[in-house]
Amino acid sequence: MAPLECSSIADFDVGVTLGTGSFGRVRFGTHRLTKQHFAIKMLRKRDMIKSNQVEHIKSEKKILQILSKDQHPFIVNLAATFQDPIYIYMIIEVIMGGEFFSYLRNATKFDNETARFYAAQVVLIFEHIHFMDIIYRDLKPENLLIDMEGYLKITDFGFAKIVPYKTYTLCGTPEYIAPEVLLQKGHGKGVDWWTLGILIYEMLVGDPPFLDADPIQLYQQVLQCKLQFTQSYDKNAKSLTKKLLTPDLTKRYGCLKRGAMDIKTSVWFDEMNWEALLKRKLHAPIKPALGSNTDTSNFEKYPEVDEKALPLEFDGPDPFGDF
């Protein structure tokens, strides 16, 4: 995807909301000049400043710019960024199949082959970004999208960080958080391999392995790491899941001398053609129903808001500079 010539939201016809978050929403948009379709991430400066998220969004832009140069088949591409006095705008490749989360919830759980197909794509994503010393830190079904061919695209790099060795920030989704993050002794690329283990489990069971309404109880479960598997859980998937969900980093797959190769050569992935997968030549188990390339029906419907009614202005200097 080539960089896009644009400098204002007026360069787009802005359509329906595709998703919402703490600091704004993502909307479907069409570039008026080229007629290309995009996801427009609109983030309220006022809310980000109040929540000390300015550096996070600057980091997200930097990381997406780095990754977009390579155009990895399973990572969304960033086409442009700009701002006005109220919003930061990120113009991102739009993925019309909708959220992976919705497909998993509708199915309750996936069969072994479907789970393996999507887990393998996450392996390739992490292998790629770790090579550039980028850790993602927020894998969960909500941050994965399904494209028109039924392949994954990972999105939302708000927690991603360039980390050659270790970082100490407490972040992530509670059910997916790794023990070393909770212990705040420093964490690195191993957190991503832990989250892969959680995702595999959730795909095959329907729920993550550690679950509690009380965050303290949930974190205790994570630290104790007592895994319980259903009878239908594939034995080779079980073996890999245990090797990913290992609190001991000296034993966790992905963290050892061979890195991602330990995962790629595990018995569960015996029949996976990694080269064909990367080239998107394998049959996808999910095929989104799409009436056209502007059909947004695979996304949840969100109530639209009157942006003018929101308190959007902020006092003081603008910390976003020439974002």
Sum up the structure in keywords:
single chain, Phosphorylase Kinase, domain 1, Transferase(Phosphotransferase), domain 1, 2 domains, two-stranded antiparallel ribbon, globular
Folded structure, characterized:
This protein has helices spanning 45-50, 54-70, 100-107, 112-131, 179-182, 190-205, 215-224, 235-244, 261-264, 274-278; strands spanning 12-21, 24-31, 37-44, 78-83, 87-93, 134-135, 144-146, 152-154, 161-162. The chain is globular. Helix 4 packs antiparallel against helix 6 and helix 6 packs antiparallel against helix 8. The mean pLDDT is 92. It is built from ten helices and nine strands. It has a five-stranded antiparallel beta sheet. A two-stranded antiparallel ribbon has the order 6-9. It has a two-stranded antiparallel sheet with strand order 7-8. Helices cover 31% and strands 15% of the residues.
Topology, element by element:
Elements lengths: L11 E10 L2 E8 L5 E8 H6 L3 H17 L7 E6 L3 E7 L6 H8 L4 H20 L2 E2 L8 E3 L5 E3 L6 E2 L16 H4 L7 H16 L9 H10 L10 H10 L16 H4 L9 H5 L45
Antiparallel strand pairs: 1-2, 2-3, 3-5, 4-5, 6-9, 7-8
In short:
The chain has ten helices and nine strands.
Shape: globular
Q: Proportion of β residues?
A: 15-25%
What number is the mean pLDDT? Answer: 92
Order of helices and strands: EEEHHEEHHEEEEHHHHHH
Instruction: State the CATH topology of the largest domain.
Output: Transferase(Phosphotransferase), domain 1
Family: Belongs to the protein kinase superfamily.
GO molecular function, one term: protein serine/threonine kinase activity
Binding site for ATP: 41
Keywords: ATP-binding, Kinase, Nucleotide-binding, Serine/threonine-protein kinase, Transferase
